[in-house]
Amino acid sequence: MTAPTERGAEIGRRIGVGLMYGLWKPRVLGAWRVPASGPVILAVNHSHNIDGPMVMGTAPRGTHFLIKKEAFVGPLGRFLEGIGQLKVDRAVADRTAITDALAVLDQGGVLGIFPEGTRGDGDFASLRAGLAYFAVRSGAPIVPVAVLGSTERRGRLIKGLPPLRSRVDVVFGDAFEAGDGSGRRTRKALDEATVRIQDRLTGHLENARRLTGR
Predict the structure, then answer these.
(1) Sequence-distant (≥ 6) Cβ neighbours of residue 154 within 8 angstroms
(2) Number of Cβ atoms within 10 Å of the Cβ of 112
(3) Could you tell me if 96 and 84 are in contact, meaning their C-beta atoms sit under 8 angstroms apart?
(4) Which CATH class is domain 6-212?
(5) 39: closest CA among 113, 132, 127, 135?
(6) Which residues constitute the signal peptide according to the record (predicted)?
C-alpha cells in the first residue's frame, strides 16, 4: 500500500461531492467550524453505509478515513488507496494503520474516524479508545460530525442506505481538545479523555437532532 496523500484525499472529496449530491440531498451545517489548515480529527457517528462518503463529499477539506480492511478488496481496494483512505484491521492493534493515521495528522491533514468502531445506532453510546489515543498523541483538535439520514424504509434500494434523493443532514460541531493539557499519554489519561470526548460527541448529536428535527 502506498502512503496516503493529500492529493488523493482531495480527489476523493471531489468524487464524494459528485456522488453524494447526485444521489441524495445533503444539507450541510457548520462546515466553517472545520479548521482551514493544520491537523484535525473528524469524529463521525455511524448509522448508514454512506456516512463516510457523505462526510468526504461535504467536508471543506479532503479527509483520510480509517476504513475496515474488509472493504479493501479488488478494484475497490485500489480505489480507496488511491483516494488516500487508510486500511485498518479492527481485530488487532493495527500498527500500520496507527502509523499511517498519525502520519496524516503530523503532515497537517484531516483524519476521519468512526469512534464507535462499526455501524450501529449512530448515537456515540460506545466509544473505542482509538480516538482518544490519536487526539492526545497528536494534539489535533476533534470536530464532532453528526450524519442524520432518513430512517424511513420505503424508497430504499439497498439496506443500510437512506432512500435515494432523500435529505441527509451533516452537522459539524465546534472543535475541541481531548487532552487535559498535561500531555500525559497514560492509560488513565486516555480513559479520562475518552469520557470527555463521549460527553462532547453525545452533546453535539443531541444539539444536531434538535437543530434538524431528526
Answers:
(1) 163
(2) 26
(3) no
(4) alpha beta
(5) 135
(6) none
Calpha distance 129→3 (Å, rounded) = 24
DSSP letters for 6-36: HHHHHHHHHHHHHHHHHHSEEEEE-GGGS-S
Hunting for cell 493544520 — which residue is that? 38
Rounded CA-CA distance 189/179 in Å is 8
For 65, the grid coordinates are: 478515513
119 burial via Cβ count (<10 Å: 0-12, 13-18, 19+)? middle
Tens digit of each residue's pLDDT (9 = 90 or more) over 69-100: 999 999 999 999 999 999 988 877 788 999 99
The contacts of residue 87 (CB under 8 Å, 6+ apart) are 1, 67, 68, 69, 71, 72, 77, 80, 81, 96, 97
For the entire predicted model, the pTM comes to 0.91
pLDDT tens per residue across span 107-128: 999 999 998 765 555 555 556 6
Where do the domains of the chain lie? 6-212
